[in-house]
Design goal:
88 residues; mainly alpha; 0% strand; rod-shaped
């Protein structure tokens, strides 16, 4: 025989008593719910910032955004010698 069957035989006409008190269970459930509420609140408060661009643009100095002016190369000198006649 196992322990439970022996205990039940010994108890006789006594009423059934649960292994835990209802108040103890209510406190445990309340604590579990409290932990969940605090966790959700902390996740909401400590969540990361939104990484979207700011609404107001940040001014950037023109020397960082402009390109240097393009200079024209020097003209190529014609080769020495007789100049060809223009074609009519």
């Amino acid at each position: 025989m196992n322990r439970r069957s022996r205990r039940q035989r010994r108890s006789g006409p006594e009423t059934y008593r649960p292994p835990r008190d209802r108040r103890e269970v209510a406190i445990a459930v309340g604590c579990a719910i409290g932990v969940l509420v605090v966790t959700v609140a902390l996740l909401f408060v400590l969540r990361p910032r939104d990484d979207s661009p700011p609404e107001v643009p940040i001014p950037v100095p023109p020397e960082l955004t402009s390109t240097p002016p393009v200079t024209q190369p020097a003209p190529i000198a014609p080769p020495p010698g007789p100049t060809p006649a223009p074609v009519p």
